[in-house]
Structure formats: C-alpha cells, structure tokens
C-alpha cells in the first residue's frame, strides 16, 4: 500500500469532453482517479517497479471476497470465517498466480487515463476509464464497480472485453480443481442471489 500511495500524483479528476468538469465528483470516482493517476505515473518507471505497483494494487484495492459473495448469495454469510478467507485467497491467487496475466498488466504503458463515465451503484459507483497507450496500441478501457468497504472504497468488479471478473471467478469456484485447492465444500444448488451480496456484476459488452 505504501508504494501505491507514494506513486500517486495530485492531479484533479479529468473527464472526457462530454462530461462537465464542474460536475460534483462522487467519492468513488475520486478513489478511481487516485488509482489511475498512479497507473500513469508508474508507466514511466522500470518493469520491476510497474510489476510491484500492480501487485500491490491487486492485493489491496480489490475486494477478493466479492467473487464468492456474488456466486453464493446469502449462503456466503453462513460460511465459517476461515472458509470465507480460503475462498478469497483462492480468487486472488487464481488471478495473480497467472504469469500471463501479470505480464500483460505490468507491460501496460499509459500516457494518460481519463474517467469517461460513471453511474451510481449501492454504496459506490460504476466508473468507466479509458487509458491511452504508448505507440499505436489501442486504448485500454475498463469498467470498475467500486463500493464502500468500511471506511474505504475497494474495487468489487472489473469489466474488460466483455468479461466480468467476479462472474468469471465466482463460476470457477465450483470447479473440482478449484475446490481441491481452496478446500471449501460449497453446494452450487444452494447458492442464490440474496443476502445483500453484490449481485450487480458489470454486464458484458
């Protein structure tokens, strides 16, 4: 977390031309702006520093409980805290343990990042960002579902090229190989959409 904070720049929120800069800024959008400021700043640094930045960001800025909460609904609240932790750790490691994913992320070089849209959600907002890449690479565009977690905000879902992170990981939790790793016996037939779980996954497309 210290590295993330140290790399942040203090630039104000930048909006695409279609959105007025004088518009009231949602706290969730300000949170996202702080993150993307850091993404631009770290793009000027060596690969090892970019890797460390994104590892720190993924560890601390994403709510890794969200995939299981989304997949299990009200059943999640009945799980033992140790089981919740195992599911969250599996979700985190399923992404961060993929070398191809981390190599892709660490090699993203951004010249700028803009917030291009936002819409309110329960306890937060969905925030769309678009980042210009070095050379002739196409813009990097994602949608972030951000919600308050206690006294802070965290990223609950990431939508990229039609894929919702919590839907993909939530689905994978039931895979036999995944169950063998996280060790939590979860009955898919009893999962539901209740219990206050963050069911508003970012829609594909």
What does this structure look like?
The chain has 205 residues and is of the alpha+beta class. 40% of the residues lie in helices and 21% in strands. The protein has eight helices and five strands, in the order ααααααβββββαα. Helix 3 (47-61) crosses helix 6 (99-106) and helix 4 packs across helix 7 (165-172). The longest helix is centred in the first third of the chain and has 16 residues, at 27-42. The chain is globular, with a radius of gyration of 17 Å. The model is unreliable at 1-24 and 193-205 (pLDDT under 50).
Low-confidence stretches: 1-24, 193-205
- Largest sheet entry: 5 strands, antiparallel
Radius of gyration over C-alpha positions, nearest whole angstrom: 17 Å
CATH fold-level assignment: Nuclear Transport Factor 2, Chain: A
Tell me the series of helices and strands, N- to C-terminal.
Answer: HHHHHHEEEEEHH
Give me the side-by-side strand order of the main sheet.
1-2-3-4-5
Number of domains: 1
Helix amount, in percent? Answer: 40-55%
Helix count from the secondary structure assignment: 8
Basic shape: globular
């Amino acid at each position: 977390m210290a590295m993330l904070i140290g790399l942040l720049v203090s630039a104000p929120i930048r909006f695409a031309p279609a959105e007025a800069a004088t518009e009231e800024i949602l706290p969730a959008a300000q949170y996202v702006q702080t993150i993307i400021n850091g993404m631009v700043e770290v793009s000027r640094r060596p690969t090892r520093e970019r890797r460390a930045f994104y590892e720190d960001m993924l560890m601390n800025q994403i709510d890794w409980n969200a995939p299981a909460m989304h997949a299990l609904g009200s059943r999640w609240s009945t799980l033992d805290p140790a089981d919740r932790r195992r599911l969250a750790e599996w979700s985190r490691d399923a992404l961060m343990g993929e070398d191809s994913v981390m190599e892709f992320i660490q090699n993203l070089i951004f010249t700028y990042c803009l917030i291009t849209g936002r819409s309110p959600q329960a306890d937060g907002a969905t925030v769309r960002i678009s980042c210009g890449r070095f050379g002739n690479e196409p813009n990097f565009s994602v949608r972030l579902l951000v919600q308050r977690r206690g006294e802070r905000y965290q990223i609950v879902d990431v939508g990229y090229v039609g894929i919702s992170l919590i839907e993909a990981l939530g689905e994978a939790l039931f895979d036999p190989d995944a169950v063998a790793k996280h060790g939590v016996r979860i009955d898919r037939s009893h999962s539901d959409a209740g219990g206050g779980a963050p069911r508003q996954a970012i829609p594909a497309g």
